[in-house]
Amino acid sequence: MTFIIIILSLLIERFFHWRKHRHWEWLEGYQAGFKLSISKWHPTMQALLILLPVLVLVGIIQILLINRLYHVPAIVFGVVVLLYCLGPDNLWVEFQARAKSEEHVDSVAFANAFFEASYYRIFAVIFWFAILGPVGAVLYRMIERLAEHSETLSSQMIWLRQCLDWLPIRILTFIFALGGHFTEVIACWERNTLHGLSSSQPLLLECGFAALDRRDAVADEREIEWEAIALFDRSLVVFVVLIALVVLAL
Q1: Contact yes or no for 44/156 (Cβ under 8 A)
Q2: How far apart are CA 146 and CA 128, in angstroms?
Q3: What is the 3-state composition of the chain as percent helix, strand, coil, each rounded to the nearest 5?
Q4: Residue 120: exposed, middle, or buried by beta-carbon count in 10 A (0-12, 13-18, 19+)?
Q5: What values do phi and psi take at 117, rounded to 5?
Q6: How many CB atoms are located within 10 Å of the residue 94 CB?
Q7: What is the distance of C-alpha 62 from the center of its chain?
Q8: Which sign does the torsion angle of CA 188, 191, 197, 198 carry?
Q9: Signed CA dihedral, 136, 242, 17, 71: sign only
Q10: 118, 207 in Cβ contact below 8 A?
Q11: pLDDT digit of tens for each residue in the chain (250 aa)?
């Protein structure tokens, strides 16, 4: 069922525009509602108290829909939650438009921005959905949004996001090796993969750029931009295949 939900969600996200259906402005008001009642608590406890009610609600719905009507309600719920937690902007629409732009673009800056966006908008959410179901997708996106927009809990949320990022970034960068230049990526991966939480983002960018097809003479440097997009597409296919293999093994 998880495999079906991920496939459906990726197809919808890849070929349709869902930006207008993803509104996270409510999270700021939701956090503000807790502010007065828990302001004297330790910041870590505040963070947990803000996250738990939403996660518990999603978890209860997830449990109630198990094994009902041939799993159809659970699949619909999973697709809706996963699509809502992706983005919020459509990754492919935004970066394909930037790659097609006539304005000069720094290819290295483009590749770095794309690898960051592809991880935070797509891969991390799908990874935690594959592990924890809808609760995992909501957990990651709430922490990511609060890390960026919370005035009082940003440091706690950034630390939690770094914890959640450590494993999936290492899996994604290993998949980059499978979908790109294996020896170059593996050398970078082995050199940096066991470092601490703060090493995850540099590892993502370094391995991503190492995987690109830059060894041949490229007449137009902007081909690097399209190669970055193609690399992530291949990596998603590999990750979905790995999920299918795990499902079959279980």
Answers
A1: yes
A2: 17
A3: 80, 0, 20
A4: buried
A5: -65, -40
A6: 16
A7: 21
A8: negative
A9: negative
A10: no
A11: 889 999 999 999 988 877 777 888 888 888 877 776 776 777 778 888 889 999 999 999 999 998 888 889 999 999 999 999 998 889 999 898 888 875 656 788 888 999 999 999 999 999 999 999 999 999 999 999 999 887 777 888 999 999 999 999 999 999 999 988 888 899 999 988 888 888 999 999 999 989 986 655 444 566 788 899 999 999 999 999 999 888 788 7
Q: Are 91 and 122 in contact (CB under 8 A)?
A: yes
- Provide the residue type at 95 as one letter: F
List the one residue out of 180, 195, 149, 14 whose CA is nearest residue 95. 14
- Tracing tokens 């890849």 back to the chain, one arrives at 14
pTM over 0.85: yes
Strand locations in 2-126, DSSP E? Answer: none
22 φ, ψ (degrees, to nearest 5):
-110, 100
Q: How far apart are the first and last CA of the chain?
A: 12
Residues 6+ apart with CB under 8 A from 218: 224
